[in-house]
């Protein structure tokens, strides 16, 4: 999880730096900058050590990765609960058999 977030963080920082370089070389902005709007800093992003100047596309990439982690966590939870229920069921059956 840390390596995926680190790679995503590095890519976002590189893209923001590239966007800033492009804006310095081409000061005339087009009117179609819908994807480049930036939101106010968010504490959740700061806690994950992401830069404050993320665009909507960057936040969307982060949301996609987080949803993948969440689905993986649900899968691991399901598998572990299934294993624990099998252990419990087998223990009870063994106890009944010994009685």
Per-chain topology:
Layout: H1 2-25, H2 43-47, H3 56-98
Helix pairs in contact: 1-3
Structure description:
The protein has three helices and no strands. The chain has 99 residues and is mainly α. The protein has one domain (2-98). Helix 1 (2-25) runs antiparallel to helix 3 (56-98). The N and C termini lie far apart (47 Å). The model is unreliable at 30-34 (pLDDT under 50).
The gist of it:
The chain is mostly helical. The protein has one domain (2-98). Helices cover 73% and strands 0% of the residues.
Question: Can you tag this structure with a few keywords?
Answer:
99 residues; mainly alpha; 0% strand
Structural class: mainly alpha
What value does the average pLDDT take?
A: 82
Low-pLDDT windows of residues:
30-34
Count of individual beta strands: 0
Domain module count: 1
Determine the N-to-C terminus distance: 47 Å
Order of helices and strands: HHH
Percentage of helical residues?
Answer: over 70%
Shape: rod-shaped
Question: Major β-sheet, in short?
Answer: none
Assembly context of the chains? single chain
Please count the helical segments. Answer: 3
- Approximately how much beta-strand content do the residues carry? under 5%
Radius of gyration, rounded? 23 Å
């Amino acid at each position: 999880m840390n390596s995926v977030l680190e790679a995503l963080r590095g890519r976002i920082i590189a893209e923001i730096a590239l966007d800033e370089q492009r804006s310095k070389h081409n000061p005339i902005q087009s009117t179609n900058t819908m994807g480049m709007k930036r939101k106010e800093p968010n504490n959740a992003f700061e806690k994950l050590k992401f830069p404050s100047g993320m665009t909507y596309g960057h936040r969307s990439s982060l949301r996609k990765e987080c949803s993948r982690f969440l689905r993986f966590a649900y899968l691991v939870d399901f598998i572990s609960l299934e294993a624990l229920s099998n252990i419990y069921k087998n223990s009870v059956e063994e106890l009944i058999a010994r009685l």
